Amino acid sequence: MQSPENVRFLLVDDVDENLLALDGLLRRDGLELFMARSGRQALEMLLVHDFALAIFDVQMPEMDGFELAELMRSTERTRNVPIIFLTAVATDERRRFRGYEAGAVDYLLKPVDPQILRNKAAIFFELARQRQELARQRDELSRSAEKLSKALSVLQAHSDNSPLAVVEFDPNFRFNSWSKSAQRMFGWSAEQVLGQKLVELGWLQREDVARLMDVTGGILTGGEPGSVFACRVSCRDGSVIDSEWFISVLADRGGAVMSVNAQVLDVTERNRAEATRQLLIGELNHRVKNTLSTVQAIASQTLRHMESPEDFKASFMARLESLARAHSLLSEANWEGAYLTKLVQDQQQLNLIEEDKFAVSGPEVHLPPQLALHLGLILHELTTNAQKHGALAAPQGRIALSWDLAGKALCVRWVESGVALAKTPSSRRGFGSNLIQRSTSAEGGTAQMAYKPDGISWELTFALAHHNAYASPITSRAHPDRIRRSPHPYAGSSDKSEIARPVTSAE
């Protein structure tokens, strides 16, 4: 801690011997004595320094002690400096009264009792020390308050801009605070929330409120600094999000709850991504089996039409490469998006479909990455199933694939015909049907399968948050090599009349 400043006394007397005597009598550590030999010199010192006590001789030439005291009382800077008058002249009560009227705190006759003067001066020395300490504490408190104010401002700014919604409750679970990030996340403003009970807002289900209270009690009894709580939360607009709560409890010395603080994180997208990851892990296992079946079908159909082992090798390797490109397209779609016609062509270019077995029609639609991945998986599953036991496995089998846009929804129809079902369909769904259902649900859509006497059909819908644009419908009952795209405008294109280059089997 910084050492306190010296306390200053002002001694005024026109006799040097008196000043030296006062100096010897009053000197002590931490005290600084200023000596003036006239009233004018004393006033000059008073304008420069702050004094805790002034000791004046009454009888001085030019300006006596009374006049000096009156001048001090007329100035704001020196008005509150305590004064002790010293005089060697016999006096009456009128002079003593004049001294006190001029602002003196005491009036002593010479010769002065050294102990009395020393004790009186010590009182003013200690008072000055106390004022210095109070001033120091005041400055420290002011600096601490300023730092605290800045820290609170920074904390509030971080809280308002944080992805975490910061909420605080009182012991009865009434809202004490509601950050701007909470308003952005859930829709209610602080004015609409503060003072309400948690159970009244409709923010959490009642059973989740009960669980939250149990968690809070567990933090107190278990002595843990905080806990994580997961639940689904309703927003003002009626939507529901998945959330994780990081909870801390402030208690008094008796262990009673003073406040409960919750930092809420929206984990809806994270949970959705985790569900997709689990789906893809299961699909990876299933896809390996489908890929082997596809390779077997490629080998079987290629061998049926080849006359020599060399011809078989060339054709078989080309078709395997085509299959690899199909998987690469799905990988790219996961990051960049893809056109629906390209996904369809990817399946057609496996060369497992005879030219007159597949009819495709629909506008050009650019799909966002996640939807492209899901739809690519669905097309692959439908194609594989058709190869195993559907239209592509029967001589007279045909497939009609079509799609269109209806507002913000994409409708896809897959119709197989020309194949007799081997047996009555089971009510139990296989992995493929579940994959299709879950993939459409993940995109906010639906999937419906229907059985007909000569085949099956699927009607799929997907919710589109946005799409770039689409061209005139394309219709083909021919090999995919002869599919042409009509001119179509789309975002970012510098040439709105561009026609897609046809894909050849040599590519």
Would you report the number of β strands? Answer: 18
* Chain-averaged pLDDT: 78
Tally of helical runs: 14
Question: Order of strands side by side in the largest beta sheet?
Answer: 16-17-15-14-12-18
CATH level-3 fold name of the largest domain? Heat Shock Protein 90
User: In CATH, what is the class of the largest domain?
Assistant: Alpha Beta
Q: Rg, please?
A: 47 Å
By helix and strand content, what is the structural category?
alpha/beta
CATH superfamily of the largest domain: Histidine kinase-like ATPase, C-terminal domain
- Taken from the alpha-carbon principal axes, the silhouette is rod-shaped
CATH architecture of the largest domain: 2-Layer Sandwich
Walk me through the structure.
With 507 residues, the chain is of the alpha/beta class. The protein has three domains: 7-137, 3-Layer(aba) Sandwich (Rossmann fold); 162-266, Beta-Lactamase, CATH 3.30.450; 319-482, 2-Layer Sandwich (Heat Shock Protein 90), CATH 3.30.565. The chain has 14 helices and 18 strands. The protein has a six-stranded mixed beta sheet with strand order 16-17-15-14-12-18. Helix 10 runs antiparallel to helix 11, helix 10 (268-305) packs parallel to helix 13 (369-389) and helix 13 (369-389) packs antiparallel against helix 14 (431-442). The longest helix has 48 residues, at 114-161. The two termini are 83 Å apart. The relative contact order is 0.05. Mean pLDDT is 78; it is low at 467-507.
